[in-house]
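Q:
Just now I want nothing more than another pair of eyes on a protein record. Here is the record:
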Amino acid sequence: MMSTFDARIARAELLSGRYPFAAEILNYFARICRAQQKLSQHLFGALKPSFEGALRGQIDVDLLAPRSGEMLGGLADHSPAPLAETIREFLAASDRQRALVLQTYIDRGGTDEAFRDSREQLVAAILVQPCAELLAGQVAIPPAVTAGNLCPTCTSRPVAGVLRVEGDGGRRSLICSFCGTEWEFRRILCAYCGETRESSLPVFVAEKFPHIRIEACDTCRHCLRTVDLTKDGNAVPVVDDLAAIPLALWAEEYGYKRIYGNLLGT
């Protein structure tokens, strides 16, 4: 079986050919995944997950910072100029400054708290996410009946939704923007404000992306992209979401705001 990162890389490479307008972003994401995979392999033996305490508190900045040069150095050469500059500034900073950036993301990533610099946030996310995903994989998810609109593992906002085959319909889940946890969530319910009136929860589908739905809420004006695996069982939600750039433009035009943006802000 392919690892999570192998699956993401393979899907990004496939979709880069299918959607030329998203090829640059998808190829860059594949590079990020290769770097994250190496970090994940290193962390696998070094992490000592605890089943007590919050997941965020278990992410060790001192474990991540020493690997930042090895992980980000090669990525900078293939990054857009503004991001490449941010990466190099991060690597040139003192140990204390790098630790502060990472800790800020650990504290705020996936929440409504604003990060002062989106490029700095991306650099921190690239480093922190493999660790968060590894730790989340060791935590038992609470029963679906107790799961709300925040991740049951780390209390972050969802980055996307998923519909999976169940009986004659689809079972809805949310994917955490911080640790990648997937948890079950009610079908007719806004994943931000909890609106339940179906008339206030329109769903939009674009012809170019028939397997991706925009689930909007006219009460709070937030929206969530949901990847429908009943229509494309080969989709990898976090990758297909990245490719759906026209959906971001559509949502902006109609005044809907994503509950939480994906890694590259597409």
Remarks:
- Residues 80 and 116 are 19 Å apart (CA to CA).
- The longest strand covers residues 158-166.
